[in-house]
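hi support,

uploading two proteins for the ticket. first:
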Amino acid sequence: MKFLSLQKIVLLVVLWMSIPFCFSQTTPLSKEAKISVLTCGTSNEIYALFGHTAIRVNDPANGMDVVYNYGAFDFGTSNFALKFVKGNLQYFAVANSYADFIANYNYEKRSVYEQELRITALQKEKLVALLNESLLLENREYTYKFIDQNCTSMAVEVINRALDQEVIVKKGDTISTYRSILYPYFNNHFYEQLGTSVIFGTKTDQAGTAIFLPFELKESLNQIQLNQQPIVKQNNTLLEYEPETNSSWWNNPYTYLLFLGCILLLNKKWSDTLYLASMGILGIAFTILGLYSTHLELGNNYNTLVFNPALIALVAFAKAKNKKGVQFTFWFNCIALVLYAIVLTTKVHLWIVTPLIITNGVILARRYWKKEV
């Protein structure tokens, strides 16, 4: 038995998958055609913590049931991690049969909710044309941005283009910040919650006026009116699963508090020095990220007041027995710590970083307050 080459297999799969999409471009939609927004549930994988958005075009009369989405990326991309951090990683639009799409979410035990849109036949035709246009090689890629350009915001954009007006806008809470909106999604994922709390800067403290998460879109659609009628014609639950609670012996606040407690109770010069140096190195990394990356969420990061690069200078001055240098950097770090605590009084991540503030303060005081170098 002869085996097909990998290239031939890929070509056959692509041709097979393209049949319904080419057909949809040349055949007008029937009167029974329905277009709906699909909102997919969350899971414990880091890339699925926020859910997913897709658009379904269902036209049984023409044998078409296709799901379009803007959430695809290629792990095989050269320098994937660097491009993601830099902010120039390319995501792309894809289309799959509804059967394959729903089977995948059923396998992953993730809920899928459908909201059929109440739009005209002409608007449906235009939306399908725009969706198919986004699959073209020259159009399919876009530069991913955590808040401004993702699978949800791209779906909102294409629907609004089809409607020739900005109908899909955020409804409900437009006062809460992006940071506070994101925060609950990391429940039971402690270190992810801590990491995003300290790596995000001032952009995430802006009021969350734009739709950027799947369930925000779902909730907003249920409140939006088009031509004095609800834009959602019908809500359907396609799959319903209870989200699995993430449990881990290490990914929880207890290991975090235990680690910091051990540092404080150990009360050794070497461990205190290593801790402060590590905090300073992380601060340098955050500063470089803010300057290097085009992700606006990483810029202007006031968390470097606690992850302070000046801690490196303090450790270096202490090692060199430079008394004036130690005194200056000690007070500099103390003032920064106080400013940080003041800034955080209105932030949702106050309590998760409070142990770091306390640890920094205790170590600074016991090692450098009125101490001989």
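and the second one:
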Amino acid sequence: MVFLVTLLISLFVTVAITPLFSSLALRLQLVDLPGERKVHAIPVPRVGGLAMALGAFVPLALYWTGDGFLRGYLLGAGILVLFGAIDDFCDLPPRVKFAGQAAAALCAIFAGGVRIGSLGMLAPENYLLSAPVAVALTLLVIVGVTNAINLSDGLDGLAGGICLLIFAGIGYLAYLAGDVTAGLICIALGGALFGFLRFNTHPASIFMGDAGSQLLGYSAIVLSLWLTQGKPTALSPLLPLILLGFPILDTLTVMAVRISQGRSPFSADKNHFHHNLMALGFLHPESVLIIYLFQTLLLIAAVELRFYSDWTLLVGYLLFCALVLAGFSRAARTRRKVRRYEFFDIKIAGRLRLLKREGGVIRYSFRIFEIAAPLLLLITCLTAPAPHRYLSLVCVVSCGTILAACRWRKAWLPGLLRFVLYILIPFSVYLTGEPVARSAGTFLTRLYNGSFGAVAVLIILVTKFSRRKSGFRSSPMDFLICILALVVPNLPNVHGGDVAVGLIAAKILLLYFSFEVLQAELRGEMEHFALWTVASLVALAC
């Protein structure tokens, strides 16, 4: 239950405060201006990192019990967010930025106990690094990877999506290793990222800025080092290289190119992998999706090869790097753009655009969706056992408030329904978890679980064919949602007692996104949706 509550608090806090921070940033002109190296054409607020940090830190602070690693992690993370926010507002000199990153790394090393003490099979048997060498190497690695993620933040949703996949992998490995602290941090960061990506996928309405990207890079490397070096473990010490392999390869490649051209390795240019993909003719969302796929491959390799020899992991990673670099090198030499096949771009894409203009697909899919999503929540509430009387009282009060708003304050309905649903959905799904687990394998249970997959398909159809100009849109985040819906419930050993924790988390997030899409499509006509919500509240309370 602690993991689930951590996820929900971080998600809810981030979703709630991100629009507030965005409005404040626009008012104070704290925006990222368009430029030659940038792909956005209008000023965009860059305070999303502060919203993410608050979303992640709040549940971690609530559950902190004096754990030394968590204390060191939070100290370092707080320093990085502070320096990153100042840099977002007034552009700090590079020396000051590096000083902040070094201070954060030293907090993780000395207060958190994070240290690279062993090189595994890459060094003689039982060889341990001396304390000064271990501290220096750990400092270099933490600062280096922090900057690698920071530099990869070049397209809408790119750094956030990469790190969401990384934290999913680290969190799963932490769960298998029984490391509750690392698992909680990953879940808190994952919830904050899901909430932030709601606003950051293309076209982004807010950027994370240095405060967010440095927090993500620092968190990813510190957590992966702690998991593989913090205590005796069978996990390979090379796993951090695999988990963070794509951003590391991108950064090292860009720096090598700059040095070969006689420039500073820290100078700005458009030689990152995402820039190269767009130069090849891939669209913005396609470039992001391709990098997501690369990161997913590395994530699968890290999980499947976690007990393999260090040399196997190193050779495999170097082979991956060689293939990626060979592909980009050949593309640069030939200067050929990706072939936009007429069959796909004209016949298929053209047909999809025609269907979107005609409105038939969105009309029929939305008719099904606007019934299926609320009905699925109602069935979930009906299946749940009787809750504690305090929860029943909250349901009754919520019903009265919604009905009163329908009668006298309809303008309040969107915000009120979102608030109620963000509380109702997790409790109803969690309460349903045990009875569903007990009846696993029956036809009705398989039908019930399968209906979440059907709703996920409807989400993609509705967002893809919607003619809205604002609100929730189809984006590369659909890929992340599909990965969550298909992979998490099927991960081995992810259970809490008789309850499938992974399946519960997947259901909650799918319902969250279902109602985000539904509210956007209803365009303020919320009365029927409000009645569905009241029915679900009554079903849960009884």
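thanks. also noticed: The longest strand covers residues 31-32.
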